[in-house]
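Predict the 3D structure for this chain.
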Amino acid sequence: MKRVLSLMIALLVLVPVIAGTTGSITGMLKDSGGMPVSGGKLTLVNKTMGMTFSATSDRKGAYGFLNVAPGTYTLHAEAMGFLPQDRAGLVVHVNSALRVDLTLEPEKR
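Done. Predicted structure below.
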C-alpha cells in the first residue's frame, strides 16, 4: 500500500513537469546603481491556490522559479540594507518563461 501511495505522489509531481504544464519565472535582482544583489530572498505567492515558493539570488543577482503551475502570482523581494519590493499580477502560462528583473532601493537611514 505504501508503494502504491508513493507512486501516486510521484506521478502527481512528475506528470505536470513531463507533460509541459508548468511555466517559470526568472530574473535579476539589482540595486539602484545596477549592481547585482547577492543573497536576496524572493518569495513567489499564489493566494488563490495557496502556493508559496522561495528562492535566493546568486552572486550575480540571478534567481529562478522553475516548474511553476499556471496562475497569477505576487513576487516579493528583500535583501539586507534595501527596501522590500513586491510585484503583483504576474501571470504564468503553460510552457511560458516569464522574466522579471527587480531593482531594490537602499533603505533610508
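The chain has a mean pLDDT of 89.
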